[in-house]
Amino acid sequence: MDYIVRMEKEHNDLVRKIDKLSNFIQDKHKNLDSIELLLMIQQRTYMESYKYMLNERIAYSKEKQNRLNEEERKIADV
Questions:
Q1: Distance of CA 41 to the CA centre of its chain
Q2: pTM to 2 decimals?
Q3: 33-57 burial string, b = 16+ CB within 10 Å, else e?
Q4: Crossing angle, helix 2-28 and helix 34-77, to 10 degrees?
Q5: Residues 56, 57, 60, 66: is their CA dihedral positive or negative?
Q6: Can you tell me the distance from the alpha carbon of 54 to that of 13, in angstroms, rounded to the nearest whole number?
Q7: What is the distance between the alpha carbons of residues 50 and 44, in angstroms, rounded to a whole number?
Q8: What is the C-alpha separation between 10 and 19, in angstroms, rounded?
Q9: pLDDT tens, residue order, the chain (78 aa)
Q10: How far, rounded to the nearest angstrom, does the alpha carbon of residue 55 sit from its chain's CA centroid?
Q11: 62 contacts: CB under 8 Å, gap ≥ 6
């Protein structure tokens, strides 16, 4: 279960970083040259993809853990 907590923490940290980057892009885009802006937008896109994959891993891991817990309960009931 600890690995799920670690993934959730990583996800939350990533969300904060994406928000910070998005705010920076929105607020400072006039001070950036076109290549810097493009690179930051691409970075945010990859970060969003990573966030999606973390969500998928967390959901799968929780589902898997629930199945294991259910199997253990069934065994204990026997």
A1: 17
A2: 0.83
A3: eeeeeeebeeebeebeeebeebeee
A4: 160
A5: negative
A6: 12
A7: 10
A8: 14
A9: 699 999 999 999 999 999 999 999 999 988 999 999 999 999 999 999 999 999 999 999 999 999 999 988 888 887
A10: 5
A11: 4
Q: How many residues does the chain have?
A: 78
Both tokens of 59, joined, read 């959901």
In the 8-state DSSP scheme, what is residue 46? Answer: H
Task: Please name the helix (run of DSSP H) or strand (run of DSSP E) that holds residue 66, with its range, or none.
Answer: helix 34-77
Q: What angle do CA 22, 45, 64 make, to 5 degrees?
A: 110
The token duo for 52 is: 């999606």
Which tokens go with 68?
A: 């294991």
Give the list of residues 6+ apart from residue 1 with CB closer than 8 angstroms, or none.
Answer: 65
**Neighbouring residues of 63: CB distance < 8 A, sequence distance ≥ 6:** none
Q: For residue 57, which amino acid is it?
A: R
Tokens (6 digits) for 26: 């929105």
Non-local CB neighbours of 73 within 8 Å, separated by 6+ positions: none
